[in-house]
Amino acid sequence: MIDTPLRILIVEDLVSDAFLVQKQIKKFCSNAEISISDKELSLSVALKQMVPDIVISDFNLVGFTGFDVIKAVKEFNKEIPVIIITGNLNNEEKAARLIMEGASAFFLKENLSNLSEKLEPLFQRFIQEKQELMERLQRQHDKEAKAKELSDFLREYDYEAAEDKMALESFKDKVLKFLSFR
Q1: Cα Rg of the chain, angstroms
Q2: Which residue, 32, 40, 73, 145, is the most exposed by fewest CB within 10 angstroms?
Q3: Count of alpha carbons within 13 Å of 170, Cβ hemisphere only?
Q4: pLDDT digits (tens, 9 = 90+) for 10-46
Q5: What element of type H or E holds 6?
Q6: Residue 88 contacts by C-beta under 8 Å, 6 or more apart in sequence?
Q7: Which domains are present in the chain?
Q8: What kind and span of H or E run contains 138?
Q9: What is the number of other CB atoms lying within 10 angstroms of the CB of residue 113?
Q10: Dihedral angle computed from the Cα positions of residues 56, 62, 68 and 74, in that order, rounded to the nearest 10 degrees
Protein backbone atom coordinates (compact mmCIF):
# COMPACT_ATOMS: atom_id res chain seq x y z
CA MET A 1 0.00 0.00 0.00
CA ILE A 2 1.29 3.45 -0.94
CA ASP A 3 0.60 6.12 1.70
CA THR A 4 2.51 8.96 0.01
CA PRO A 5 0.13 11.76 -1.01
CA LEU A 6 -0.17 11.76 -4.81
CA ARG A 7 -2.00 13.97 -7.29
CA ILE A 8 -3.08 11.84 -10.23
CA LEU A 9 -4.65 13.12 -13.42
CA ILE A 10 -6.60 10.61 -15.51
CA VAL A 11 -7.18 11.66 -19.13
CA GLU A 12 -10.05 9.52 -20.39
CA ASP A 13 -13.15 10.26 -22.44
CA LEU A 14 -15.11 7.15 -21.37
CA VAL A 15 -16.58 7.62 -17.90
CA SER A 16 -16.70 3.87 -17.26
CA ASP A 17 -12.99 3.42 -18.05
CA ALA A 18 -12.04 6.45 -15.95
CA PHE A 19 -13.99 4.97 -13.05
CA LEU A 20 -12.28 1.56 -13.45
CA VAL A 21 -8.79 3.11 -13.56
CA GLN A 22 -9.61 5.21 -10.49
CA LYS A 23 -10.88 2.12 -8.67
CA GLN A 24 -7.67 0.23 -9.49
CA ILE A 25 -5.51 3.09 -8.18
CA LYS A 26 -7.45 3.21 -4.92
CA LYS A 27 -6.65 -0.49 -4.35
CA PHE A 28 -3.00 0.35 -3.61
CA CYS A 29 -2.86 4.11 -3.10
CA SER A 30 -4.55 5.29 0.08
CA ASN A 31 -3.76 9.00 -0.20
CA ALA A 32 -4.48 9.89 -3.83
CA GLU A 33 -6.15 13.04 -5.09
CA ILE A 34 -7.53 12.02 -8.48
CA SER A 35 -8.87 14.35 -11.18
CA ILE A 36 -10.32 13.34 -14.52
CA SER A 37 -10.00 15.23 -17.77
CA ASP A 38 -11.75 14.24 -20.98
CA LYS A 39 -10.81 17.05 -23.38
CA GLU A 40 -7.58 18.65 -24.55
CA LEU A 41 -8.54 22.06 -23.12
CA SER A 42 -9.45 20.60 -19.72
CA LEU A 43 -6.08 18.78 -19.73
CA SER A 44 -4.25 22.11 -20.00
CA VAL A 45 -6.35 23.61 -17.21
CA ALA A 46 -5.88 20.55 -14.98
CA LEU A 47 -2.10 20.59 -15.45
CA LYS A 48 -1.94 24.19 -14.23
CA GLN A 49 -4.47 23.93 -11.41
CA MET A 50 -3.58 20.51 -10.06
CA VAL A 51 0.10 20.05 -11.00
CA PRO A 52 -0.15 16.25 -11.00
CA ASP A 53 2.52 13.85 -9.82
CA ILE A 54 1.42 11.25 -12.40
CA VAL A 55 -0.74 11.38 -15.53
CA ILE A 56 -2.59 8.30 -16.79
CA SER A 57 -4.13 8.66 -20.23
CA ASP A 58 -6.10 6.72 -22.77
CA PHE A 59 -4.46 6.67 -26.22
CA ASN A 60 -7.49 7.26 -28.46
CA LEU A 61 -9.43 10.27 -27.22
CA VAL A 62 -12.05 12.40 -28.94
CA GLY A 63 -10.15 15.07 -30.87
CA PHE A 64 -6.66 14.15 -29.65
CA THR A 65 -4.38 11.21 -28.85
CA GLY A 66 -1.96 9.96 -26.24
CA PHE A 67 0.83 11.65 -28.23
CA ASP A 68 -0.90 15.01 -27.67
CA VAL A 69 -1.24 14.25 -23.95
CA ILE A 70 2.46 13.36 -23.65
CA LYS A 71 3.45 16.53 -25.51
CA ALA A 72 1.24 18.76 -23.32
CA VAL A 73 2.47 17.18 -20.09
CA LYS A 74 6.15 17.28 -21.08
CA GLU A 75 5.85 20.92 -22.18
CA PHE A 76 4.33 21.73 -18.80
CA ASN A 77 6.85 19.71 -16.76
CA LYS A 78 9.12 17.06 -18.27
CA GLU A 79 9.47 15.32 -14.89
CA ILE A 80 5.80 14.24 -14.70
CA PRO A 81 5.48 10.57 -15.69
CA VAL A 82 2.81 9.70 -18.24
CA ILE A 83 1.28 6.22 -18.42
CA ILE A 84 -0.76 5.35 -21.50
CA ILE A 85 -3.57 2.81 -21.17
CA THR A 86 -5.25 1.86 -24.40
CA GLY A 87 -7.69 -0.64 -25.78
CA ASN A 88 -5.83 -0.97 -29.04
CA LEU A 89 -2.17 -0.44 -29.84
CA ASN A 90 -1.39 -3.13 -32.36
CA ASN A 91 1.33 -1.15 -34.08
CA GLU A 92 4.89 -1.65 -32.80
CA GLU A 93 5.95 1.69 -34.28
CA LYS A 94 3.30 3.51 -32.24
CA ALA A 95 4.37 1.67 -29.09
CA ALA A 96 8.02 2.58 -29.66
CA ARG A 97 7.09 6.17 -30.50
CA LEU A 98 5.11 6.46 -27.25
CA ILE A 99 8.21 5.59 -25.26
CA MET A 100 10.46 7.79 -27.40
CA GLU A 101 8.15 10.77 -26.93
CA GLY A 102 8.15 10.40 -23.17
CA ALA A 103 5.61 7.84 -22.00
CA SER A 104 6.87 6.09 -18.88
CA ALA A 105 4.83 2.97 -19.64
CA PHE A 106 1.80 1.74 -21.56
CA PHE A 107 -0.73 -0.99 -20.93
CA LEU A 108 -3.64 -2.51 -22.81
CA LYS A 109 -7.15 -2.13 -21.41
CA GLU A 110 -7.98 -5.75 -22.15
CA ASN A 111 -7.72 -6.63 -18.48
CA LEU A 112 -8.27 -3.63 -16.24
CA SER A 113 -9.12 -5.87 -13.29
CA ASN A 114 -5.41 -6.46 -12.56
CA LEU A 115 -4.20 -2.97 -13.49
CA SER A 116 -3.39 -2.21 -9.85
CA GLU A 117 -0.74 -4.96 -9.86
CA LYS A 118 0.97 -3.28 -12.82
CA LEU A 119 0.62 0.30 -11.60
CA GLU A 120 1.74 -0.11 -7.98
CA PRO A 121 5.41 -0.91 -8.75
CA LEU A 122 5.49 1.94 -11.27
CA PHE A 123 4.07 4.40 -8.75
CA GLN A 124 6.63 3.23 -6.17
CA ARG A 125 9.42 3.78 -8.71
CA PHE A 126 8.09 7.26 -9.56
CA ILE A 127 7.95 8.19 -5.87
CA GLN A 128 11.52 6.94 -5.36
CA GLU A 129 12.78 8.85 -8.41
CA LYS A 130 11.08 12.04 -7.24
CA GLN A 131 12.62 11.69 -3.77
CA GLU A 132 16.07 11.15 -5.31
CA LEU A 133 15.62 14.20 -7.54
CA MET A 134 14.59 16.35 -4.58
CA GLU A 135 17.61 15.13 -2.59
CA ARG A 136 19.97 15.90 -5.52
CA LEU A 137 18.49 19.37 -5.88
CA GLN A 138 18.86 20.00 -2.15
CA ARG A 139 22.51 18.85 -2.19
CA GLN A 140 23.21 21.11 -5.18
CA HIS A 141 21.52 24.03 -3.45
CA ASP A 142 23.52 23.42 -0.25
CA LYS A 143 26.76 23.17 -2.23
CA GLU A 144 26.07 26.44 -4.07
CA ALA A 145 25.14 28.16 -0.82
CA LYS A 146 28.41 27.04 0.80
CA ALA A 147 30.43 28.19 -2.21
CA LYS A 148 28.72 31.59 -2.13
CA GLU A 149 29.30 31.88 1.61
CA LEU A 150 32.99 31.07 1.11
CA SER A 151 33.32 33.55 -1.76
CA ASP A 152 31.63 36.24 0.29
CA PHE A 153 33.97 35.52 3.21
CA LEU A 154 37.07 35.66 1.01
CA ARG A 155 35.87 38.83 -0.71
CA GLU A 156 35.53 40.41 2.72
CA TYR A 157 39.23 39.78 3.39
CA ASP A 158 40.62 40.97 0.08
CA TYR A 159 44.38 41.29 0.54
CA GLU A 160 46.48 43.75 -1.41
CA ALA A 161 49.54 41.62 -2.02
CA ALA A 162 49.42 39.51 -5.18
CA GLU A 163 50.92 36.44 -3.47
CA ASP A 164 48.23 36.61 -0.77
CA LYS A 165 45.52 36.74 -3.45
CA MET A 166 47.05 33.77 -5.25
CA ALA A 167 47.28 31.84 -1.98
CA LEU A 168 43.67 32.66 -1.16
CA GLU A 169 42.45 31.63 -4.62
CA SER A 170 44.36 28.36 -4.30
CA PHE A 171 42.85 27.85 -0.83
CA LYS A 172 39.37 28.69 -2.17
CA ASP A 173 39.76 26.20 -5.05
CA LYS A 174 40.85 23.47 -2.65
CA VAL A 175 37.92 24.15 -0.32
CA LEU A 176 35.44 24.16 -3.21
CA LYS A 177 36.94 20.93 -4.52
CA PHE A 178 36.62 19.42 -1.05
CA LEU A 179 32.98 20.52 -0.78
CA SER A 180 32.11 18.97 -4.13
CA PHE A 181 33.06 15.51 -2.85
CA ARG A 182 30.60 15.63 0.04
Answers
A1: 24
A2: 145
A3: 6
A4: 999 999 999 999 999 999 999 999 999 999 999 999 9
A5: strand 6-11
A6: 59, 60, 108
A7: 6-130 (3.40.50.2300), 136-180 (no CATH)
A8: helix 115-156
A9: 9
A10: -30
